[in-house]
Prior knowledge:
With 446 residues, this protein is mainly α. The chain has one domain. Helix 2 crosses helix 7 and helix 12 packs antiparallel against helix 18.
Amino acid sequence: MLALAWPLALTNLSQIALVLTDTFFLGRLGEVPLAAATLGGNLYFIAMALPFGLGFAAAAMLAQERGRVARHMREMRRTLRQAAWLMLPLFAVLGTALWHTGAILRATGQDPALAEAAQSYNRALLWGMPAFYGFLLLRGFLAALQRPGPALCVSAGAVLLNAVLVYLLVGGGLDMPSWGVVGAGLSSALANGSMLLGLALWIRADRRLRRFRLAGRFWRTDWRRMAEVARLGLPIASTMLMEIGIFSATGLVMGWFSASAVAAHAVALQVASASFMVPMGIGQAATARVGLAAGAGDARGAWRAGWTAIGLGAGFMVAMAVLLLLLNEAIAAAFLPAERPETRALAATLLMVAGVFQLADGVQAVAAGALRGLKDTRTPMLIAALGYWGLALPVGLGLGFPAAMGPPGVWIGLACGLGCVALLMTLRWRAMAARGGLRVRRILKA
Length: 446
């Protein structure tokens, strides 16, 4: 599990490094550019829930097809092709929505100047969305083959490229004029394009991977397989939308307090997201390992893979919780200059709350990944709806406004919701693992 999980986790960390780089340089420009990129990024990641869901569904299908061994090359190629075709109408809808980011944010009561700047950021960023979706599909394909190394190498190169571009376009390196939030969005879009191109060229150059002929007869459609990707992917997308959406909604709520609250929220969220990338990678490894075992009819192997992943995710997040609780002020100081002491103090407080919910956030992510390996996606969706929107948001709003706790109260609500989701996801996996033999037989019959 570790051999597969650590490259996936580092690949995820490289993705968040793109955003952290933007946050670092935009924070030096002032609170308004940082807050605008945060608000725009919130909407962007809400839109990305659907591509993520379809990509994770394809990864689960690819793992089970690889586990069945017979004719796996043809089956994996067909699944990847149909998942790719789904992006065409998807990008048309999501791209149109993100193009009008300003109108959406103004409708939620955000400051018009922030909304306009956030729209400029998203209009540059959205052109990298199709490339990132293609990268997700190829990464899932390699994970099913237990070859995560190429995706890690390509992602690391993209981080370096993004750092150079942000330095030039946002930081004004080499005496270039700063492009502000537009430069940050454009840098990330180009980095996403480089990841897809790099991974495609890597697969093309590798003799063993080239045998799959992933681009062969790419124009052919398989409506049944496309429907299965959508059937599995939509609940996953809904689950991710609820999780991404609750943090994005929290960002919008911070806008009701002040621009300083949005900036502090941005710093705390980026740090918490960075730590979350590791259990997310472990969850992706769990999807692959559980899916491989399920496809091969090995119920005991699926049970062992899932619990191993949950234990690894929990152990890592306990360590991160201790780190955030002890070093919250130092981390906040690394992102925000001393000239803004109130914003820095608020960010340190939010980081302490983030430390409290680290364990729950990690466990729920890994358990959801293990359940995806068994193609169990609908119940996790319902659990997410209950925990995030039935508990986290009402509690957060109640503590933030009527209880007058302000931004920390909103984040305490997040901690309550994540705890609920983690408990229920673990119980769901326990129930599925206990009757794993029956579940595997159903998978094989299907």
